Target: Transaldolase
Amino acid sequence: MTHIDELASLGTSTWLDDLSRDRITSGNLAEVIENKSIVGVTTNPAIFAAAMSKGTAYDAQIAELKAAGAAVDEAVYAMTIDDVRDACDIFLPIYESTDGRDGRVSIEVDPRISADREATLSQARDLWRKVDRPNVMIKIPATPESIPAITDALSEGISVNVTLIFSVARYREVIAAYREGIQRAAEKGLDVSTIHSVASFFVSRLDVEIDRRLEEIGTEEALALRGKAGVANAQRAYAVFQDIGAKDLPEGANVQRPLWASTGVKNPDYAPTLYVTELAGPDTVNTMPEPTIDAVLEQGGLHGDTLTGTEDAAQEVFEKLVTVGIDMEDVFAVLEREGVEKFVSAWSELLESMDAQLH
Model:
């Protein structure tokens, strides 16, 4: 049994945070599933921008789209949809054997429309229809404007990966949106057992932002808190999940599992498995870049359920952060804004690159 299997026995599914056509066509994705116990894949605009900027895997399709006079946005989504559809087919056996919990592949709506509820919902519907696979998840950011679109999409039977969650307060809104969407789906007579969702809580980015502020403060008390906020924040979120995540759901509905995202450490002083070993527990997903997966496989370090019963200690960390002068509300506002901006930037760069190839 590998350490990833051990993680699964604790209740945490491991998804790969990467996808490219090369991975699919070379057989690498199937190998990763077989050899590294991966049971899902997540993507985002930055991942696709990186994939399409390297190698020649997309050249033939780009030539076809160019000959057909495809618009830039249309061309990019044609290629990403093809990749996601093929990945869904590879993961289908896992999807079927886990009753839909795993075997999932996520594709994100255009980050540039994250402030437009109707546009977000329209694209979520379009992606759901075009990928046309039961194990796809549509990623929608947890911005205030997009949260109603999350409810709307779920109410129509669309499985949703809610992304870019940073604060527990926003997470509570996401849980409420999920509950309302599933209830509306049940009222329409939809089979709610087929609708799945995860709530993607970003981890390492919180440490990057707070560590920077702690270093600016510079006191011994402040510096002692470096590298603790990301885990503590996720543990606080997990306590909320345990408290209300399964409440008031219609019969047959699935719980919306917390998903730990951005779990590759950004600070080389921290253990590469930090956001895995300290965030293991029932009903969770951890989506990791492959180097983090490899570190877990090689180093292990798992020491049981590190989520259940951690709320008090996590809350103490947050109280200390406030005491030394960290403005948590400002931290979360900055991270949410920058999270959207980074995806918009990656998407815009991809569109510019594709425009040059099409014209």
